[in-house]
Amino acid sequence: MSLPALELLETIKDEEFTCVERISADGRQLVRKCYRTQPKFFWRSFLLRSKAEREYSNLHWLASAGLRTVTAFGWCETRRLGCVCRSWLFTERMVGRTLHQILSAGLDWRRRRELAKAYGEVLGQMHRAGFLSLTMQPRNLLVDAVDRLHIIDQPALIRDRASILGGIRARLDLYDAAFSARRRLAFSSPERLRLVLSYADGDRLLSRRIWRKLSGRKRWHHKLLRIVFALHGVLRSGIRRILRIPNGTLPREVGQLSVYTWGAGLSSGPSGQAASEAVRSA
C-alpha cells in the first residue's frame, strides 16, 4: 500500500500551545492541528486521552447525529511516562472563514440576521441530540460559500443520552453564544433575540425563560457553572472514555509515537508509517 506523501503548504496559526497548518497529502489538502502540553502541567495528562483523540471522537459523534462538521480523518500522539507530550488531529480543509471573522468584517443587517438564526439552529440541534459543547463561540464555527455553519474545535464536548434543550447545562453554551459581554458587542439585541428564537424553534415561552435566566448572569457565575458541569461530565463519561486504556487492540508503536487510528479516506486502517511521517514533517 502506498502511503500519502505530506507537504506543508501554510501555517494558519502558531501559538504557544496550538499550531494549525494546511498540508497536502498526495494532492489532497488537509488541516493538521497540533496540541502541545504545557511543561508545568505535563503530569496532568497521565493516562488521560489526548485532546486530539477527544476531538476526533467528538466530531464523529456530532456528524453521526446529523450536524455539519469538518471531517476528521485521524489522530496520533506522543507520550512520555504515560503523559501526553503532543497530539495531532488531521481534518479536511474547508474553504471559508469563521463566524467571528465574518461578523467582524461588517455585514448588512439581513445577512447578520440570517447568520444569527443559523447559529441558533446549530445550537438547538446539538442540544436536542444531547451534546454540550462548552466551546461554542463564533470562532469555532466555519461559514461556507452559501452561509452554512460547520462545527470545528470540539475537544471538550460532553455527550448525554437525552436532550438538554433549554436546560441549565444548555444555558452554558447559550451564554457563550449570545449573552457574554463579547457577544453583546458582536450581536445587537434583535439579532440575539433571533438567535434564541431559532434555538427554541419558535417556542416563545422557552425563549423568554432563556432570556430571563441569562440576561443578568455574571461572568464569575458562568465560570463556576462551567467547572461544575465539566467535572460532572467527566465523572459520567466512564473510565474508558477518560483514560487511555486499550480495549482489546493495542496501538501500533512507531518509535515514541503511538498511532491509534487513521481515516480510511487516506489509507485502509491504522497506518503508523503515514502518521509518523506526518509528525516528522511537522
Mean pLDDT: 81
Secondary-structure class? alpha+beta
β-strand number:
12
Question: What is the helix tally?
Answer: 10
Indicate the proportion of strand residues: 15-25%
Give a verbal description of the structure.
This protein is α+β, with helices and mostly antiparallel strands and 282 residues long. It folds into two domains: 6-93 and 246-280, Phosphorylase Kinase, domain 1 (2-Layer Sandwich), CATH 3.30.200; 97-236, Transferase(Phosphotransferase) domain 1 (Transferase(Phosphotransferase), domain 1, Orthogonal Bundle), CATH 1.10.510.10. It contains ten helices and twelve strands.
Q: What is the secondary structure topology, with strand pairs?
A:
Elements: E1 6-14, E2 18-25, E3 28-36, H1 51-64, E4 72-80, E5 83-92, E6 97-98, H2 99-104, H3 109-128, E7 131-132, E8 141-143, E9 149-151, E10 158-159, H4 170-179, H5 181-186, H6 189-199, H7 204-215, H8 219-237, H9 239-242, E11 252-254, E12 257-262, H10 272-280
Give structural attributes.
single chain; 282 residues; alpha+beta; Phosphorylase Kinase, domain 1; Transferase(Phosphotransferase), domain 1; 2 domains; seven-stranded antiparallel β-sheet; three-stranded antiparallel β-sheet; 39% helix; 23% strand; globular
What's the short story on this structure?
By secondary structure, this protein is α+β, with helices and mostly antiparallel strands.
